[in-house]
């Protein structure tokens, strides 16, 4: 596409979007995270924003998890979560994100004396205030975190079930995929599904295709977080296409954590051309120096996606979401109108 760079960037900022794979704590605005670190009484080498940027660079996925845990130690108060939820939603709204399903990890803060219930209540306050101010709708997905074990996962499910339908919509399974297989969580997912939680899980990011089969067959997930290594098993790729099981793809994240060597070697275009249900997401935008708009931009600049492809992906986000069918149809109509307006303004085909 032979568009001026800034015209393309403006166009992509304005296309309507849905974000389905976003970790709240990985999306804290950089300045806010810096202020949380400076508020802390511990001695830290992070003296400037640039120091923090350098800290958010990783040698591999294990190093990323190490930095993730370090970052979370600076979130000390329940009201921090209200501020974070509000600011993250505000940033997304500036990129014309209409709807977001946000992972959060409430079990990471027990050392700070924060209960899972308190964290959830503050997040709901923040996201509801953001909807009033920015018009962006968001729902929460509880990350059970596979590192903590299924028994704790069940306890977490029990504590947060009262919030189902009141701000919480589903459960996910993040953490160290290569060290903690998903199989032991089968009974937790079965119970969650029966209670009405929507089901997703990280798989095929650090571990291979078998990890994806496990969350499909043992956990009964409706979506796959990442799924980047599905192409190691042609039978799995055919199955994902046939069932149209959505993949929550996060291209720049996969490059930053060294899951993929480069954007050029990422399988997103292959999956898209094969007819898999892929969605575009930013994962941990602050920690990976990205945004959902930059993810779309990379598809155009690095992989040759067209405007028509971007529209297809934007609509996939709605289809793959946990919204009701009625809300999906309403949002698709809204997106269709916005796409037509944008194509007229920018004279793009």
Describe this structure in words.
This protein has 349 residues and is an alpha/beta fold. The chain has one domain: TIM Barrel (Alpha-Beta Barrel), CATH 3.20.20. The protein contains 15 helices and 8 strands. The chain has an 8-stranded parallel beta sheet with strand order 1-2-3-4-5-6-7-8. Helix 14 runs antiparallel to helix 15. The radius of gyration is 19 Å and the shape is globular. The protein starts with a helix and ends with a helix. The mean pLDDT is 95.
Q: Mean pLDDT across all residues, rounded?
A: 95
Structural class estimated from helices and strands: alpha/beta
What is the count of DSSP helices, taking H or I runs of 4+ residues?
Answer: 15
CATH topology: TIM Barrel
For this structure, what is the CATH homologous superfamily?
Metal-dependent hydrolases
**Strand tally, please?**
8
């Amino acid at each position: 596409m032979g568009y001026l760079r800034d015209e393309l960037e403006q166009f992509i900022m304005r296309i309507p979007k849905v974000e389905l794979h976003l970790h709240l704590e990985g999306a804290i605005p950089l300045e806010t995270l810096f202020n949380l670190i400076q508020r802390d009484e511990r001695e830290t080498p992070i003296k400037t924003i640039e120091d923090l940027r350098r800290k958010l660079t990783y040698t591999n996925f294990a190093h990323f998890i190490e930095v993730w845990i370090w970052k979370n130690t600076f979130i000390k108060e329940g009201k921090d979560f209200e501020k974070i939820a509000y600011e993250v939603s505000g940033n997304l709204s500036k990129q014309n994100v209409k709807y977001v399903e946000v992972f959060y990890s409430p079990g990471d803060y027990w050392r700070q004396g924060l209960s899972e219930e308190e964290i959830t209540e503050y997040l709901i306050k923040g996201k509801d205030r953001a909807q009033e101010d920015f018009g962006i709708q968001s729902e929460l997905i509880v990350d059970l975190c596979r590192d903590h074990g299924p028994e704790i996962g069940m306890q977490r499910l029990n504590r947060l079930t009262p919030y189902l339908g009141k701000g919480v919509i589903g459960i996910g399974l993040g953490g160290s995929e290569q060290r903690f297989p998903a199989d032991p969580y089968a009974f937790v997912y079965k119970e969650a599904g029966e209670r009405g939680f929507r089901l997703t899980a990280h798989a095929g990011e650090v571990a291979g295709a078998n990890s994806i089969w496990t969350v499909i067959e043992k956990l009964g997930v409706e979506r796959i977080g990442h799924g980047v290594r599905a192409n190691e098993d042609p039978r799995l790729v055919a199955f994902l296409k046939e069932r149209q099981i959505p993949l929550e793809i996060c291209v720049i994240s996969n490059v930053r954590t060294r899951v993929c060597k480069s954007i050029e070697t990422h399988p997103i275009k292959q999956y898209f051309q094969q007819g898999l249900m892929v969605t575009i997401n930013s994962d941990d935008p602050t920690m990976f120096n990205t945004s959902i708009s930059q993810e779309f931009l990379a598809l155009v600049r690095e992989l040759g996606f067209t405007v028509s492809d971007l529209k297809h992906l934007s609509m996939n986000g709605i289809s793959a979401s946990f919204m009701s069918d009625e809300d999906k149809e309403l949002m698709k109509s809204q997106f269709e109108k916005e796409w037509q307006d944008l194509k007229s303004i920018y004279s793009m085909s």
